[in-house]
Amino acid sequence: MSDIHLQALMELGEIELAQSQYKAAKDVYEQILRLALEKKNRFFEGLAIQNLGALSLNHGDFKQALQFYHKALSLYREGQYLEQEGTVLVLIGNVYQDKGDSEAALQFYERSLVIYKDLGHLINQGVVLEEIGNVFLEKGDNDKALEFYQKALKIHLAVGSKKHEGIVLGNIGGIFNNRGNLQEALSYYQKALKIHQMIGARSNEGNILGLMGGVYAYIDHVQALSYYERSLAIHRELGRKEREGMCLGNIGNIYSHQGNSEKALQYYYMALEIHKKTEDKRNQSQVFGNIGDLLKGMKEYEKALSYNQKALQLQREIGAKHSEGITLGNMGDLYVELGRLEEAKKLLHESIVLCDQSIVIAAGVFRGSLGGILAKEGRFEESFELFRIGEEQVKSHRMEYGKFLCKKGEAFLLGNGLETAKEALRKSKDIADTLAVKNGSELMKAISALEKRLYP
Q1: C-alpha–C-alpha distance, residues 204 and 185, integer Å
Q2: Ramachandran bin of 20, using left for φ above 0, alpha for ψ from -120 to 50, beta for the remaining angles
């Protein structure tokens, strides 16, 4: 059995894995492992074990993934396969990142970086710098993440790696999206899309189209659906089930924002079914949170709270701090509806602290929620200051800004700010008209409530 045959089998396994055909991929990798053991080929034995680790990670089994990766690491060290050693160190770092242990992840990434520097492998150095940037992005340190992404970009530009140049440009776009600088985000996404299309990187093209849909979800629902549907078509064509689920969830979000609850739930449950099958906890938590938001709009508060608690449990398991911040804020809003104001204030404070470090639009939203509670308690100075800061944070997200303005109007009305309340209502109506939202949406309900208060 030649190495050429083993390499051909390895490529077959990679195809099966890329198409989410996990059982078929596992069969191929186990076949390679048996053949490599017979030939005492440490290189392919390590590769087979490494890929079995990747399968374990796809199924959410962090413990087994680490066992496989550490076994592969030992084989690579034994055979002095330094490049593969660097690769598996990155993969171990990825597991710790998924587990929420960012410090352990950084340690493995840095060990890998040392190897690649010793070998003079610039492209791999750039990839590791990207991963380190991802750690800081997950921790909510956008500035530090940007620093590492820019280092990676410099390397990829120097060596002419168009694939990784496109990936890093997309990552940088994500930072500007988090900060609420939507036009800058779109600029980076467009650059990344052009590169991916030029080199025929279909999976990355699908990813970027989805990210662009996310930006347009803030400002133009028709455009957002168009980008999400283009992304969905690519991921289905490539058999990428996880990404297909994400697209379905994003389409569900658009219908939810438009007040079409039935259609939104249809897409959410399709997405959830895929994420459960692929054991994708991060995206399961996202869908749980989205269903919770939808149920809140339908005034099913206890049921909504249960879905948010499911989301929070998963987010804490995997250490997704920015997602945890959003979920805590959503739960705070639910406690307001349930009349449990002390619990609401506590969760909203926690949420703002987390979201200020990562997703400022969400921080602005939840400042509005907390400001509304304080206004009802007669603490107008504190309330209005929260609205002042929050408005700057949220205004780039038109749907959320419309709802924020309604909260602001309610608070200022309580504090005898009649003209400010009227102006807030006018602006929120203009946003609703521009986005063509339906009467059953959260924004239209908020506008209706404020209008009744102003003009009983």
Answers
A1: 16
A2: left
CB-based contact 9:41 (threshold 8 Å): no
Alpha-carbon span 105 to 100, nearest angstrom: 9
For residues 286 and 417, give the distance between their C-alpha atoms in angstroms, rounded to a whole number: 37
Tokens in use for 185?
A: 């985000």
Q: What is the DSSP letter of 300?
A: -
Closest by CA position to 76, among listed 52, 101, 42: 42
Contacts (Cβ under 8 Å, ≥6 apart) of 253: 217, 264, 290
Question: What mean pLDDT is predicted for residues 224-245?
Answer: 94
143 close to 325: Cβ distance less than 8 angstroms: no
Residue 181: Cβ-neighbour burial (10 angstroms; 0-12, 13-18, 19+): middle
DSSP 139: T
Burial class (CB in 10 A: 0-12, 13-18, 19+), 443: buried
| CB count in 10 Å sphere of residue 134 | 21
Q: Residue 1 pLDDT more than 60?
A: no
Paired tokens of 298? 């339908």
* Cβ count near 68 (within 10 Å): 24
Q: Which pair of tokens denotes residue 450?
A: 């404020």
Pull the structure tokens for residue 268: 């959410």
Cα distance between residue 64 and residue 50, in whole Å: 11
- Considering only CA atoms, give the Rg of the chain: 24
CA dist., res. 202 & res. 231, Å (int): 10
Token digits of residue 23: 């059982």
Token readout for 189 is 């996404």
pLDDT digits (tens, 9 = 90+) for 278-331: 777 878 999 999 999 999 988 999 999 999 999 999 888 876 777 899 999 999
For the record, the structure tokens of 374 come out as: 């304080």
**Taking every pair of C-alpha atoms in the chain, what is the biggest distance, in angstroms?**
84
Give the C-alpha separation, 286 to 235, whole Å: 19
Query: How does pLDDT run across 165-194, given as a tens digit for each residue?
Result: 999 999 999 888 866 678 899 999 999 999
Separation CA 364–CA 353 (nearest Å): 11
Question: What residues have CB less than 8 Å from 168, skipping those under 6 apart?
Answer: 126, 130, 149, 152, 153, 156
Residues 6 or more apart whose Cβ sits within 8 Å of residue 132: 106, 109, 110, 113, 148
- Whether 387 contacts 424, CB under 8 Å: no
Q: Which residues contact 24 (CB under 8 A, 6 or more apart)?
A: 16
CB 168 within 8 A of CB 130: yes
